Here is the input.
Amino acid sequence: MYVGMDDLWIQVKMVTIKLRKRGRGMLNQSESMHGMWSSRLMFIFAAAGSAVGLGNIWRFPYLAGENGGGVFVLAYLGCIALIGIPILVAEILLGRAGRQSPINAMLVLAKASNASPAWSIIGWMGALAGFMILSFYGVIAGWAMAYVADMVSGNFVGIEADAAAKSFDDFTGDPLKVVGWQTAFMALTITIAARGVGRGLEMTVRYLMPALFLLLVVLVLYSALTTGHFVAGLTFLFQPNFDDFSSNSLIMAMGQAFFTLSLGMGAIMAYGAYMPKGSSIVGTAATIAVLDTGVALMSGMVIFPLVFANGLESSAGPGLMFITLPIAFGQMIGGQIFGTIFFVLVSFAAITSSISLLEPAVAWVVEKTRLGRARGAVLVGLIAWLLGLGSALSFNLGAEWTLTNGMNFFDVMDYVSNNILLPLGGILIAIFTGWLLSEDQLQAQLAEDQGALPVWRFLTRFIAPLGVLIVFLVTIF
Ligand code: PHE
Here is the structure.
């Protein structure tokens, strides 16, 4: 029989496509189609980059301020250790076993474990949470960038409390400015995501993470040496005061633990898919958690001494960073320089997190469509930007669009994603990994962690899911 050159070519192509498809569905591959981190250290930089963000520098201090300082910090640390770290391990493990976007990783892992494909809901819910978080994240990050400009130009030097509040209200009340800065920040995020894992994400964290730690150390020293209220700040952070603590504080502490470790939405799972084999997951997760918690506590050590030294309110809420701090820096020697450093630090931290909020959805689009990385990143980023307009306008044109309990679009995005979707995603991840994932898969990933395995398994099977559930119930009743 005569086989034409064309037929032969078509056959070769079909075989390659089949192989490629099978490759994508295969488990425990050594590489992901999206690229890989070049070393374990780069994975730590990337994951810590995701974890360290507005959650540590903006959200943690104001939540601690509103919820009684020390008790909140204690509850938060408890949630990190007992719930956060086990789920962090689970997410890295699932990602590295699946080597794909969270949605597709969950599909192949469920199949290999004879569990229902419905477990891919973890990936879908996560992508939704990612869009919701990015919607308000991009807005706040935009403010931080705008404040770099304000600080450099000396706008806050010697500023009084009323003027600082007015300047913040004027700024957030101007839809053009808020949307403009949000757009700039999202454009940066999309550009990095479009360049891919190696040339985009890794290149960014390789330089920004060391810079971030250096700036933070400089600021802690500044706060310790110049405020004269460093000890008052430490006392506030570490001495429990049970009066201000309520069951609502508990759910805030748990939501914050998920948010700050980037858990429950697949960001870490997506990053885990690019982690090289052969290094300990438990050790890596512990390093990430320590770095993240360290940054949160250090931010508190920068902010509260400044607040107390200038006789300001620690319970100022979300405005703590944008109203209270500028007043404090405005009164301090070197405030212009160190205030600028502070908001540069916040912007760096935000960008290394926002790229991880986008990654699960971008990876899925790359796997599912023919768009490719660059167009995929633009498409996903545009959706997040559009949703973000709702959050950006919550402070001006849309201030009246509120629910019955007074929550605006921004508040709803923040509350639903952090206090509901992330913990829910976390419970599902813990149940799947603890109870359903096949033993082969588990052993293949935790080969380097035999010693910690029993403790991790106990926490993941019982403590983490029950802990989240109890906090949910306590809050509802
Ligand atoms: N962990 C980031 C922060 O603390 C926010 C984040 C949440 C990033 C979820 C990715 C996923 O700012």
Observations:
- The CA atoms of residues 73 and 334 lie 30 Å apart.
- The longest helix spans residues 335-368.
- Confidence is low (pLDDT under 50) at residues 18-24.
